[in-house]
């Protein structure tokens, strides 16, 4: 149960003074965390931080005011110049003066009564806005603020600005946040005292007050204590949740797998190639982990085409040494089938029995497969989520391998391992995630990096070509096909929609068919799995030579003799995604190329991305560049790499805090694994505040 002291923060925004049904709807849309179902809370309003401030502190005379800069003038109102009836669209000018000059305060479509009340004749007022000059005459269009000179001390000279939404004004939002701040309870400090002091953090409540009531623009800076405090809170909550999940997973004793090595040797001998140095190295790490009587929780990072599948095979062979089964989980049906097809050859030679289980199996086939899994006949079970449905019982599941993990959530991943007796877990990802992101996404997981690529790979030549040269590309494609090449043609959307200029895959396939007839296949996300497989099988066999695809081919598809990939609207893809797509080629012994078709004009970031793609084939470097280029705000890019997005923290700026949070979470759990101490109790509040209810549930499950 959530502690009652948090209730004020979890009350609906509609309970805030001045927030009626209409406003509360607007706030639901604006401030709720992604995926929230039950409407915005007071907490969400408070976590909706200002994006900047209006600073009206600069006092100037009319003559001294620099053009275009926000200043506050002290003016005496002299006269009104209303437009004539015939010239309704002309503005009203209110002429005012100070000791240095005269200025026209200009209002369009203002009601005379309203103006006379706002700017009474003869009054001395403080007026803020930007001064402009025409022919030496000063004017200010729609002053942004007007107040009485006597009230100078209490005027909002520094005023915060919030991200808004249609129908919601800054003034209304400021007032709502202000009322919400009144609700802030005093909560016990959850930050470790040493960190708190060293960082000069304010309390949680003070940090929120400082950010929502800034007295200086710098108060909002992300490197100032108030902002850092909240960023740290968020990072600590997420690291605590990850550490808890990990601790629970480790609590069940693991088992030692892989004695002997006979099966492994047979499997390795079945491969038509020698392992790369990189593969040997990560396998040594994995096998050492598996041999220990604790559970393995290991992340294998390796660039596309680095050869992770073979690593998985040999890890699964090690499980078999001890008589245990392995499950290999793929994110899509295509990939599951591909893994199954690829591994079957080697498994036969190694004396391993392999079964494919997907959502498509039913009836007698499914029953037979389930039986083989339950009685231990199947050594390796490849499949999709179907592997973990309730009616799938394993004889003795010892190892779970998750491929291309970035499509699975953290908690989903942990639930997978419930099937066996605390099976080892190996997560493989093709996105070479920078260290910071690994930490944010997985917490303190062991990481193996697979460096290098199988020998004999030719580098991929990458070119960026403007869309206007589509004809050239098509004639080059013709030439390539005549020489026996295969190519991928990637388009971002399935169907043409009026709203979007994106080239539809269907339309592109039509166009290409005019040139290449039935040698063109089309695969997209809305097709059913059988049709997708058929298209890919035709491509693999050579029945088709071009496959037009939406990004469904992004992950893992392996057609080694495809040597060209054309990516339309390359400017719309993120760097990691482009690199993933490019990784579909360059898998065989042919020289390959990647054509990035873009629509001019390119923005700065898009330009930089395409340049990085042309210069580098190194996934780790590309991942670092990606993080750098993305900057804050591009949550999509972050999501792509499997990292949940943060509401407040910015990974590029708060990486140091992330490390501290990781260490602190680990330390606390080492001494207080049930979060029962006073600080542990305070941390529970933190977990609730940042929506880590799952983690609390883990605590209760014991
Ligand atoms: P990824 O890391 O992207 O999953 P794969 O496991 O699909 O890469 O391997 C890519 C290709 O490289 C496959 O065709 C695979 O058979 C081949 N391969 C893997 N290891 C080696 C090796 N040591 N030598 C030569 N080819 C290899
Ligand atoms: Mg793979």
UniProtKB/TrEMBL annotation:
Residues covered by the Helicase ATP-binding domain: 289-450
Gene Ontology MF: a single term: ATP binding
Catalytic activity, reaction form: Couples ATP hydrolysis with the unwinding of duplex DNA by translocating in the 3'-5' direction; ATP + H2O = ADP + phosphate + H(+)
One BP term from GO: DNA repair
Keywords associated with the record: ATP-binding, DNA damage, DNA recombination, DNA repair, DNA-binding, Helicase, Hydrolase, Isomerase, Nucleotide-binding
NCBIfam families: PRK10917.1-2, PRK10917.1-3, PRK10917.2-2
Family designation: Belongs to the helicase family. RecG subfamily.
Protein name: ATP-dependent DNA helicase RecG
Lineage, opening ranks: Bacteria, Pseudomonadati, Pseudomonadota, Alphaproteobacteria, Hyphomicrobiales
């Amino acid at each position: 149960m959530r502690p009652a002291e948090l209730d004020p923060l979890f009350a609906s925004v509609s309970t805030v003074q001045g927030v009626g049904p209409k406003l509360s709807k607007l706030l639901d849309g604006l401030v709720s965390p992604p995926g929230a179902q039950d409407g915005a809370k007071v907490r969400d309003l408070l976590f909706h931080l200002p994006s900047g401030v209006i600073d009206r502190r600069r006092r100037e005379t009319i003559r001294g005011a620099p053009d275009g800069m926000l200043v506050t003038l002290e003016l005496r109102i002299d006269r009104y110049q209303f437009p004539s009836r015939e010239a309704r669209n002309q503005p009203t000018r209110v002429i005012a003066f100070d000791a240095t000059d005269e200025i026209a305060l200009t209002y369009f479509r203002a009601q005379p009564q309203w103006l006379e009340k706002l700017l009474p004749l003869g009054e001395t007022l403080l007026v803020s806005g930007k001064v402009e000059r025409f022919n030496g005459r000063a004017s200010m269009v729609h002053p942004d603020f007007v107040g009485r000179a006597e009230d100078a001390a209490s005027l909002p000279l520094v005023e915060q600005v919030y991200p808004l939404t249609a129908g919601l004004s800054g003034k209304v939002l400021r007032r709502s946040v202000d009322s919400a701040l009144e609700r802030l309870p005093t909560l016990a400090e959850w930050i470790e005292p040493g960190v708190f002091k060293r960082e000069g953090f304010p309390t949680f409540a003070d940090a929120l007050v400082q950010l929502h009531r800034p007295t200086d623009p710098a108060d909002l800076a992300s490197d100032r204590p108030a902002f850092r405090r909240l960023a740290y809170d968020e990072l600590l909550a997420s690291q605590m949740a990850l550490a808890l999940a990990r601790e629970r997973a480790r609590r069940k004793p693991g088992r030692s797998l892989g004695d002997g090595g006979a099966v492994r040797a047979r499997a390795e001998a079945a491969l038509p190639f020698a392992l790369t140095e990189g593969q040997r190295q990560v396998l040594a790490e994995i096998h050492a982990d598996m041999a220990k009587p604790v559970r393995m929780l290991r992340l294998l990072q390796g660039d596309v085409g680095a050869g992770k599948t073979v690593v998985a095979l040999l890890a699964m062979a090690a499980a078999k040494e001890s008589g245990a089964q392995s499950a290999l989980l793929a994110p899509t049906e295509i990939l599951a089938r591909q893994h199954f097809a690829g591994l079957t050859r080697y498994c036969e030679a190694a004396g391993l029995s392999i079964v494919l289980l997907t959502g498509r199996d039913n009836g007698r086939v499914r029953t037979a497969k389930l039986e083989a899994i339950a009685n231990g006949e199947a050594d390796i079970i490849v499949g999709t989520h179907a592997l973990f449905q309730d009616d799938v019982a394993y004889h003795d599941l010892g190892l779970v391998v998750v491929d291309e993990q970035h499509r699975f959530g953290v908690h989903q991943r942990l639930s997978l391992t419930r099937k066996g007796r605390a099976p080892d877990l190996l997560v493989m990802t093709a996105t070479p995630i920078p260290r910071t992101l690994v930490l944010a996404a997985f917490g303190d997981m062991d990481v193996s990096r697979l460096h290098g690529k199988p020998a004999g790979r030719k580098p991929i030549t990458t070119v960026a070509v403007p869309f206007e040269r589509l004809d050239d590309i098509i004639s080059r494609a013709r030439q390539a096909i005549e020489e026996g090449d295969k190519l991928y043609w990637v388009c971002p959307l399935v169907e043409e929609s009026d709203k979007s200029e994106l080239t539809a895959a269907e339309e592109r396939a039509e166009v290409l068919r005019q040139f290449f007839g039935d040698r063109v296949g089309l695969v997209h996300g809305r097709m059913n799995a059988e049709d997708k497989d058929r298209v890919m099988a035709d491509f693999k066999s050579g029945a088709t030579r071009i496959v037009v695809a939406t990004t469904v081919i992004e992950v893992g598809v392996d057609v080694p003799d495809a040597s060209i990939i054309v990516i339309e609207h390359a400017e719309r893809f993120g760097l990691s995604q482009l690199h993933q797509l490019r990784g579909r080629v360059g898998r065989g012994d042919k020289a390959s190329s990647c054509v990035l078709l873009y629509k001019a004009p390119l923005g700065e970031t898009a330009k930089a991305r395409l340049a990085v793609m042309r210069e580098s084939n190194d996934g780790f470097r590309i991942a670092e560049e990606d993080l750098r280029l993305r900057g804050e705000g591009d949550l999509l890019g972050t999501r792509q790499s499997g990292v949940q997005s943060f509401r407040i923290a910015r990974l590029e700026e708060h990486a140091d805090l992330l490390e501290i949070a990781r260490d602190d979470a680990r330390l606390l759990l080492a001494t207080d694994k049930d979060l029962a101490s006073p600080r542990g109790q305070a941390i529970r509040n933190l977990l609730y505040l940042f929506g880590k209810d799952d983690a609390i549930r883990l605590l209760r499950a014991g």
